[in-house]
Amino acid sequence: MTKILMTSVRPDEQKAINDFAEQHQIDVVTTSKPFIDDEAIAMTKGMDGLVIQQHAKVPDNAYAALKANGLKQISTRTAGVDTINVPLAHENGLKVTNVPAYSPRSVAEHALMQIFRLLRKSYAFDHRVAQNDYRWAGLQATEIHSATIGIIGVGRIGGTLAKLLKALDARVLGYDVKPRKEMDGIVEYVSKEELLQQSDVVSLHVDLNDTSKGLLTLDDFKLMKPTAGLVNASRGPVVVTQDLVTALKDQEIAAAALDTVEGEEHIFNQDHREDGLDAVPLVKELHAMDNVILTPHIAFFTNIAVQNMVEIALTDVLTILDGQSSPHEFN
């Protein structure tokens, strides 16, 4: 019977995993541990396939070990593959697959929610009400049909968000290195500088790669309206965190809703009620700000997305073990 190891498995994934295993008559061995050390590598002995999901890098010594253990692939049940050294995987005969579109709607809906929260200034009202201050002063909202929303990265997720915004009669600006013809009439493509200058909220939806790291710096924030907000539901390193902290403090922008931040692997999906956030000082600083909304990388975390991530990743493993090519192979 085919045996597949899945790491970083959460309880909410288990039903989808069990259902898939039963349907395809395979054995899926699960562990909550990420694939980051020799202990995890040792678990692949006797396995036919490997599925991971994590923010930390796969150790470089893992690839030769996987080859020695007879594996042919690594599947990540995420869109990003930045945790995998793809060239080194290929050198060891390992195909790499991802899940590029587990549910664009899940992340787009989260971004839309945060756009509403920024426009309605709910973050500031929450802070006031927590202190028993129920005044309205200075917190007049902006109705979304009167707002301009800028989307950086108009791909699957950004395009889905654009359609949702257009249905609400917002003006939608887009910046992308590859403008999509099918978005005509929905998105007005402009330069990055024009988008930053004109938008009431900027929403980030780019992949993490060499060209997107540090995409927004202090100079970019200075182009934005002082009343504008930022939504980041893509990846933390897309924004230079220190520059964002400075921009928020200096009121270059009004607020930020962050579902992902640099250094999140030390914090998100962990309980820090006892030890706090000292390990990542910049995140601690963001957490203390009353104009920042922090969520722990949960934009993807919906019923549909979780099921799709499990099923697509496992299907890719079986496809490769069967000697075929997956449409999700990363080259």
TrEMBL record:
Does RNA-binding appear among the keywords? no
Q: Which residues form the D-isomer specific 2-hydroxyacid dehydrogenase NAD-binding domain?
A: 113-299
Q: Could you name the domain of life of the organism this protein comes from? A: Bacteria
* Protein name per Swiss-Prot or TrEMBL: Putative (R)-2-hydroxyisocaproate dehydrogenase
| InterPro entries linked to this entry | D-isomer_2_OHA_DH_cat_dom, D-isomer_DH_CS1, D-isomer_DH_NAD-bd, D-LDH-like, NAD(P)-bd_dom_sf
Gene Ontology molecular-function annotations:
D-lactate dehydrogenase (NAD+) activity; NAD binding
Q: Which organism is it from?
A: Limosilactobacillus coleohominis 101-4-CHN
**D-isomer specific 2-hydroxyacid dehydrogenase catalytic domain: residues covered:** 5-330
Question: Which controlled-vocabulary keywords does the entry list?
Answer: NAD, Oxidoreductase
Establish whether keyword Kinase is in the entry. no
- Similarity field: Belongs to the D-isomer specific 2-hydroxyacid dehydrogenase family.
